[in-house]
Amino acid sequence: MEKTPAEYLDALNIENPNLDHHQLAKISRILLVEDHRVTEKVTEYMLVSLHCQVDIAVDGKTALELIKQRPYDLVFMDVGLPDMRGDEIARRIRANEFTKSTHLPLIALTAHNDSKIQQACLNAGMNIVLTKPLCREEAAKLLQDFIPGRKKWLAAQQPAPNDEKVFDIDYAKKLLGDNETAIWETLNLFVESLSYEAQKLEEAYRQKNWLAIQAIATKLKGGSSYCGTLRLKSACTQLDEAIEAGLISQATDFYENMLLELKALRTWIKDHHHQ
What we know:
The protein has helices at residues 5-10, 37-49, 60-69, 86-97, 115-124, 136-146, 150-156, 169-176, 180-206, 210-227, 230-244, 248-272; strands spanning 28-33, 52-57, 74-78, 106-110, 128-131.
């Protein structure tokens, strides 16, 4: 017996109950290195309000471990930490980068307007040394200046409107007229292809092969354009453009959003398919 579209989508491994939809707005991943609890919390809230995903390190050792484990777009670092000075941490980071041809922006934050401290941080490889407190406007400018594509990203990559439809039949009718049989058959063909593409997508993600993921997202975007699944099209576009811009640390969020839209399509088809 021929499978229904819902049955094809049931085969996809697209469950992700822990995904927070607000992640869609967090387009920059920041490491905040700060041991003062109040300063840490205020700065974290500030950065989150600027569409950042923030990890916290309370000492130099933790900061160095996190940088080894995760890709960050920028680091805000207190100079006076309990286990080592900020300039020492910066020197270690730059030494590790030497063989990798990478450069992680390091912003030093100090409570002391001391020229010797500032010069030591700059000599160690810090990009900028700022005197606390860090204000929101200053933080926004630093994020824009040091993270490539962020300004364009903020302007262009906003979450899809809540009223955007999973399946827009009016859009489909513009291509296929009022022929509901043709509209359903087109949607059915698209959904059948998703099972195969999902297998390739999962394998590419396990290998962190972003070029392969981008190719699949582009293909799904094209298919969505023809059958009226516009929210899935938007999700694929966001993922495609994130990878194209080199914003790999944000691409995971958009990859997960694309999976959520596949799940939404599955639910819609189950609710609307007539046996």
